[in-house]
Amino acid sequence: MVPEIQDKERKMDLIEILRTVTEGKIYVENERARVTRTLASIYEKDDEREKAAKVLQELQVETFGTMEKKEKVEFILEQMRLCFETKDYIRTQIISKKISTKYFEAEDTEELKLRYYRQMIDLNLHHKEYLAVSKNYFEIYNTASVKEVEQKWKEALQRVVLYLILSEYDNEQSDMLARIKTDTNLSKLPYYQNVLTCFDTAELLNWSILKKVYSQHLKSKPGEPASPLDKEENWDVLQMRVVEHNIRVLAKYYTRISIKHFADLLHLDLKEAEKRLCEQVVKGTVTAKIDRLDGVICFTKRKDTEQILNAWSGNLNSVMDLIGNVNHLITKERMVHQVS
């Protein structure tokens, strides 16, 4: 009945009456939710997005027992979209947790799945959570309808790689990088495969050479969707990731290194090199100490008292075992000599 009314004022009055009458009545909660959504769409058409977002937030559709799951997800996605467009990012994050990603494993949910992950990409990009963005694109990449179209899966896989190398290093990032490397489709994107291999290899990277080789290939070409590396600020982030990678490599191969040599290998001045090292130590990525008097960086991890005692006990047991074996061999030789 409501959609058939053409007069806007009459429609608004009827919607408000229906919302008032049905408030708090569980047996008509689905109908009230649909009427409220209609009201929100009217507000949005009048460019009153804040009103639309507020009126739609009143609905806690996740608690509706009689509403179908698909309709619930559609409502929640609409709430997320309106909150994001009104720059209410915290509420968007909270609302997004109401959707269980296991739902997208069911059939006929691909459209909703793509909508959800695209909205999550926008949200995570706002917070600059690049690893989360990479995971979102990976879910899009693994969608059947995307895998059927070469252009679509290539675009998704490219974004997976780019946002993965832009993300900060941790166990989760390292694990995902190893998984993406095994994807057979990556061989069809040689430049993306090579740049991913660079960050997975324990070798120093030269930033100038890397940027010169990959800058033209990792940016979008005319007519293609925008690439994250079209923005110069993301090249600055990538440069930082290269420096962090090089620090981890140096920590792996050196126990002691002079500050000057350390800075030269990173292609940074002394102050900047020390700053980057301190950041990695604070994050727990590497363990290091700086001896300013000698101008030396020590990467050896200091053992606590318990570890030292355990090592000493293990060494002592090894020595006693060796003494026991030697004693046995001496006794054996004596017995053989006495017999002869």
Order of helices and strands: HHHHHHHHHHHHHEHHEEH
Bulk shape: elongated
Question: Helix segment count?
Answer: 16
Task: Give the integer mean of the pLDDT values.
Answer: 88
Order of strands in the sheet with most strands: 1-3-2
Contiguous low-pLDDT stretches (5 residues minimum) are none
How much of the residues is beta strand, in percent?
under 5%
What Rg, in angstroms, do the CA atoms define? 31 Å
The biggest beta sheet reads: 3 strands, antiparallel
Characterize the structure shown:
The protein contains 16 helices and three strands. The protein is an all-alpha fold and 340 residues long. A hairpin with a 4-residue loop joins strand 2 and strand 3. Helix 4 runs antiparallel to helix 5 (89-96), helix 7 packs antiparallel against helix 9 (150-166) and helix 9 packs antiparallel against helix 10. It is elongated, with a radius of gyration of 31 Å. It starts with 7 loop residues before the first helix and ends with a helix.
Summarize the topology:
Elements: H1 8-22, H2 29-45, H3 49-57, H4 69-85, H5 89-96, H6 110-126, H7 130-141, H8 144-147, H9 150-166, H10 171-181, H11 190-200, H12 207-218, H13 232-253, E1 256-258, H14 259-266, H15 270-283, E2 289-291, E3 296-298, H16 305-339
Antiparallel strand pairs: 1-3, 2-3
Helix pairs in contact: 1-2, 2-3, 3-4, 4-5, 4-6, 5-6, 6-7, 7-9, 9-10, 9-11, 10-11, 14-15
